[in-house]
Predict the structure.
Amino acid sequence: MDNRQIGIFDSGVGGLTVTAAIAKLLPHEHLVYLGDTARLPYGTKSAETVSRYAVQATHALMRFDVKLIVVACNTASAVALPVLTAALSPVPVIGVVEPGARAAIDATRNGRIAVIATEGTVRGGAYVRAIHALKADAKVEQKACPLFVALAEEGWTEGDVPESAARRYLSDMFAQQNAPDTLVLGCTHFPLLAKAIAKAAGGGVTLVDSAETTAREVARLLDEHGLQRKGPAERALFLATDAAERFARVGSQFLGNAIAPDQVELIDLAP
Ligand code: DGL
């Protein structure tokens, strides 16, 4: 038994989709979430910059005496997980790429998998490596879909605009012969556009969202190390590096639950 908090880190509000899955599966756990809203987006930045930002942000989370850190940001998981694991040791660190890759392998029937993500995640190739580590002969295609991040933040998740963007990004990939039968939503924001993305990919394509598989991985790790919390459920704490009011407003859509403005604290990552 361990009543300390689980720390969850993302570049902004996107990781609240992962937070929602963790809160649903593990309602007794006490969660502290940090969104680096002052420096969002990470998806367009270099691996070096994302690693530096991610180390600073997770060190700030460590001040809350956390028992485990979840890197809910796909871009940070893709480019900085080894650096973070070393920097935060002995606190265990879970990223979203490996759980997403595992879910894709479980879902595919024809061994062809598409991954959509930010530019940084695609460039780093972490999903391709993670999928090949589990199934060496899998065929993996990637596509950066940066506009989906802005659409999700704007709340334009259904209708003409996201559907037309999704068609533009995805129709070639899914029109070809032997098209992928599985599509990994390799970015925190993309589950919000799942309907438009599914429509563009066409029937028969399974969408994989790493949020649920990551939550299951958190549950497994807590179980394995005897780290489950036994106390009563407590309200999550949200930290943001800028714009607390916007965090509460936009974040509520990602979490699927209202975040009260007084639940969000501003935090300064300057050393
Ligand atoms: N959280 C990022 C990700 O999952 C998306 C937003 C950003 O670019 O910072 O890749």
About this structure: The chain has a mean pLDDT of 96.
